[in-house]
Amino acid sequence: MTTLAKTEKKISAGDFYRLDELFLSDDDRLVRDAVREFVKKEVFPHISGWDSGKSAPYANHEELVRATARKYGQQLSLFGASIEGIEPYLSHLNFTPLSHTSYGVAMREIEYCDTSLRSLASVQSSLCMFAIFQFGSEEQKKKWLPALFTGEALACFGLTEPQGGSDPGNMLTKAKKVSGGWVLDGNKAWITNGFADVAVVWARTEEGIRGFLVEKGTAGFTYRNEEKWALRAGVASSLSFSGCEVPDSALMPGTVQKKPHDLKCPLRCLSEARYSIIWGVVGAARACVDETLRYSGERKLFGKALACKQETQRRLVLMLNDTENAQLVALQLARLKERKALSHVHISLGKYNNVNKALNVAQTACELLSADVFTFDAFHSGRHMRNLNVVKKYEGTHEIHQLIVGREITGEQAF
Ligand SMILES: Cc1cc2nc3c(=O)[nH]c(=O)nc-3n(C[C@H](O)[C@H](O)[C@H](O)COP(=O)(O)OP(=O)(O)OC[C@H]3O[C@@H](n4cnc5c(N)ncnc54)[C@H](O)[C@@H]3O)c2cc1C
User: Fold this and answer.
1) Does CATH place domain 157-250 in 2.40.110.10?
2) Is the CB of 160 under 6 A from ligand 1?
3) Per the CB 3.0–4.6 Å rule, which of 54, 65, 111, 128 could disulfide with 280?
4) Which one from 395, 399, 408, 412 is the annotated catalytic residue?
């Protein structure tokens, strides 16, 4: 195991372009500091262990996700807090609305530690609470939004199917109308927190693709957690529906579609979650820059610290450049979102760009760090590199986001 010389010297690129200093509001900075402090105290000490497969102090990864969700809810009041108009459902709780910028900053601070822990917040807030708020009945909103906000309940979002996530219009899960309810049959793949208390499930009906809220324990609904080599502090599951009968009240009434293959409703939720990713990955990239800078200042080879070598400096600067570029994009998308001018095409290019840059940074970090980067506990950059490879794939793959932007600028659909 590598040992680094102890040094008091603080080596950091900090807020290089002074973006936090100049462009965040006082409120944004308060959120940043609160989340940073929370992450440092509550999750950093455990993350390497959780990533390596341990779950202490919790019994297993499901319990660790539940406990973390409760902490996010109760200590940070983060879940769903930037959804415009949600206040009436949460005003009896410790609810303060967050700006889109503050919410983005919170995602960045969480992903500085780990992508799985940011995914937990994105799925709960941007996919599930957003879906329930936008498309749910009053009864569904009153039942689920307060419990999801406090983290007492968990939700998951079931869109992807085993035959191909990039083409959700090829959906095979069906919901058949029966007297007093619906019967669901089909399978969903790679669903974050599939063990949750309630699943937002998208299924084909005679009226097009509609959303349903299916509660854990409903007869005919089962899940199985996947083994995976990334996002290991989180859980992703396969869901199976076999003759799963739900009452009429499980249908989300706002998911009315104009055309049979229309996917506007789930895609609106995905846009919200992709905005979280655009901010989150800046945190992962920053963590890699900070770790590699620290290491290259401390590690001496051939008589000098690695930071004295031209090649090391050149690559550190490339890492910093990519990170600050990604931060600029995140800030600009936040500005557009605050002005209600953010389109799904901006989001596609932003996700493509920021994940690409963050992954470059993590990969370069892994090249500059010692062989211990391949262990679970010596460095964080190896975990970020594994995780960012998944971020490149989920919530729309790199290729699909490029094709969405390509369609926008050429007017030609190529997928
Ligand atoms: C850890 C994790 C968590 C996830 N969480 C959720 C969740 O909570 N809910 C949910 O619904 N889904 C979730 N997903 C699923 C995720 O969104 C899908 O994996 C993603 O949409 C890609 O689908 P796919 O894996 O089936 O790949 P496919 O769609 O089969 O694509 C395979 C490859 O082909 C490429 N490709 C596809 N079409 C084209 C084309 N026209 N031209 C060129 N290349 C193309 C793709 O870019 C990709 O590289 C999660 C996935 C992971 C790994």
Assistant:
1) yes
2) yes
3) 111
4) 395
The per-residue pLDDT for 10 is: 53
The series of mean pLDDT values per 10 residues for the chain, 415 residues long, is 45 86 97 98 97 97 98 96 97 95 98 98 98 98 98 98 95 98 98 98 96 98 97 98 98 90 94 98 98 96 96 97 98 98 98 98 98 96 98 97 97 95
Residue type, 151: G
The CATH code belonging to domain 264-410 is 1.20.140.10
Collapsing DSSP to helix, strand or coil, 225 comes out as: strand
User: Is the C-alpha dihedral spanning 193, 198, 200, 205 positive or negative?
Assistant: positive
Q: What is the pLDDT of residue 350?
A: 98
Q: Which residues pair with 208 in a beta bridge?
A: 205
Does residue 128 have its Cβ closer than 6 Å to ligand 1?
no
* Cβ–Cβ < 8 Å for 126, 106: no
Separation of alpha carbons 124 and 151, rounded Å: 9
Alpha-carbon separation of residue 99 from 78, 105, 159, 173, 343 (angstroms)? 11, 10, 27, 36, 18
Nearest-atom number in ligand 1 for the CA of 193 is 8
Q: Angle, to 10 degrees, between the axis of helix 115-122 and the axis of helix 381-393?
A: 40
In the chain, the amino acid numbered 389 is N
Place of tokens 């807030």: 125
Amino acid identity, position 71: K
Cis peptide before 57 (omega within 30 of 0): yes
Extents of the domains making up the chain: 19-154, 157-250, 264-410
Residue 49 φ then ψ, to 5°: -65, -45
395 is catalytic: yes
Q: What are the tokens at 305?
A: 């610290």
3 state SS of 414: coil
Measured distance CA(307)–CA(294) in Å, rounded: 9
CATH class for the domain made up of 19-154: mainly alpha
Element (DSSP H or E) covering residue 32 = helix 26-38
pTM of the model: 0.96
Residues 6+ apart with CB under 8 A from 63: 55
Q: For residue 226, which atom of ligand 1 is closest to its CA?
A: 1
Measured CA to CA, the distance from residue 226 to residue 229 in angstroms comes to 10
C-alpha to C-alpha distance for 185 and 203, rounded to whole angstroms: 9
